[in-house]
UniProtKB/TrEMBL annotation:
<dbReference type="Pfam" id="PF01381">
    <property type="entry name" value="HTH_3"/>
</dbReference>
<protein>
    <submittedName>
        <fullName>Helix-turn-helix transcriptional regulator</fullName>
    </submittedName>
</protein>
<dbReference type="InterPro" id="IPR010982">
    <property type="entry name" value="Lambda_DNA-bd_dom_sf"/>
</dbReference>
<dbReference type="InterPro" id="IPR001387">
    <property type="entry name" value="Cro/C1-type_HTH"/>
</dbReference>
<feature type="domain" description="HTH cro/C1-type">
    <location>
        <begin position="44"/>
        <end position="79"/>
    </location>
</feature>
Length: 84
């Protein structure tokens, strides 16, 4: 049975969010966007919220992660591959 978010140690979850944010940032830069605000604007993602995702400061809902990964042209499988 999967643990609810509240059962995951806060430090572990914060580390996970930072890893997700760092990977999103690297992929954005690889797509040629040096500025996260331009990327978010071009892909109809709230700029302030997207900035928090990259910083690992906010929890991404599954729908939000889907939209970000779709904008980066990457699948969930590729995103969470071995180098994650």
């Amino acid at each position: 049975m999967a643990k609810a978010k509240k059962d995951i140690p806060k430090d572990d979850f914060e580390v996970f969010l930072k890893k997700v944010g760092n990977k999103i940032r690297k992929l954005r830069i690889a797509k040629g966007y040096s500025n996260y605000e331009h990327f978010a604007y071009d892909h109809d993602i709230a700029r302030a919220q997207y900035g928090k995702y990259e910083q690992g400061k906010d929890d991404l809902r599954l729908g939000s992660l889907y939209k970000v990964l779709k904008s980066l042209d990457i699948s969930f499988e590729e995103f969470f591959s071995d180098d994650f």
